[in-house]
Amino acid sequence: MMAQRATAVRTTPVETKVDILLVDDDPTKRFALKAILAPLGQNVVEAASGADALRQLLRQDFAVILLDVRMPVMDGFEAAQLIRQRPRSELTPIIFVTALDRAETDMGRGYDLGAVDFVFAPVVPAIMRAKVGVFVELYKAQQELRRYRTQLERLVQERTTALTAINRELEAFSYSVSHDLRAPLLSFNGLNQSLLEGYGDALDPRAKDYLQRMRLASDRMTSVFDGLQTLFRLTSGEIHREQVDLGAMAAEVVDEMRATNPERRMEINISEGMIASADPRLAQILLTNLISNAFKFTSKEPAARIEIGSEMVDGDTRMFVRDNGVGFDMIYAHKLFGAFQRLHSQSEFPGVGIGLATVRRIVNRHGGRAWAEGAVGEGATFYFVF
Predict the structure, then answer these.
(1) For the chain, what are the domain ranges?
(2) Other Cβ atoms within 10 Å of 214 Cβ, number
């Protein structure tokens, strides 16, 4: 038995026709114009008067309207005026078709009423089709753009719904971290401290060392939980932008850090006039993290320098925090802003790796971008644009 081969049938999508409104009180002229437009392959809807045209416009939209100037009861200009008063047809192209000569036709009034062109009798079929064809193609392009916009809006809505669900899950996880996980850890810390204080003298040095290591590990885990909660909090709530003086805000942060590190001798330069549109609370957190980062990674420099400023590049105002600290290898720059990503050991520079992740989260919420440049042993510069 011969096997039958299945053949796929390729279907050509059917092109949607658009509607053209033809308005003329003379049925013979309507018939002639309809025949001229037939090669365009579109739907030609006829109206025998201005009033009839208005009724058609209540039912549907048209790519273009061909409107006779001279009609009884309501002439073409009066009909055009009423068509333009209807919101859905106020931008619909109108081509006036008339047997009057140019001298008898008030073309200025027609253009004032929104006409895009005039066609005078005798009508040249090729010219008529060319003029109408332009507006047919324009209408199709507008419809296609409208379809894409609808699809995009639907996609945005779907993504928004998905992100809302994810944020709810993150909030639930954050609650779990702050209550279900953190509480036992605090209890463990308390017991550890009680052992060290109550039985420290009875413990041998090795046991005491173990307890102290456990305490340090517990403290680091608590810091991780605190960092997670910080990140989760930054994903919720509204942004309240206002004009913020980042220079003055940076000076306050520097004063606080100098107070907690009185032994440090540092050269710190802060530019004036660094004004940005930002949420003040989030801007404060961002600057605190960047300046704290610079303080930490210049801690081994005998002549530490930190510069906080701005520069204009390609029309963008870039804010930056620059230091002469240990720097980093640019090959690992993509890891810098990841949560809990660290390029230096805990023994060299303690921390949990949440500061720069917080910076990027804040910048992203402002619709901006953040990046870093640096070299090993030559310091680093952290940029951000709101």
Answers:
(1) 19-123, 166-234, 242-385
(2) 16
Q: How many CB atoms lie within 10 A of CB 34?
A: 16
Q: Which of 8, 150, 34 is nearest to 97 (CA)?
A: 34
Cα separation values, 159 from 171, 244, 325, Å: 18, 32, 42
Closest CA to 286 of 367, 371, 381, 357: 357
pLDDT in tens, 240-295: 899 999 999 999 999 998 988 888 888 999 998 899 999 998 999 899 999 999 99
Name the burial class of residue 108, with classes exposed (0-12), middle (13-18) and buried (19+) by CB atoms within 10 angstroms of its CB.
Answer: exposed
b/e sequence 73-87, b meaning 16+ C-beta within 10 Å: ebebbebbebbeeee
Q: Determine the topology of domain 242-385 in CATH.
A: Heat Shock Protein 90 (3.30.565)
At 39-71, the pLDDT tens digits run 999 999 999 999 999 999 988 999 999 999 889
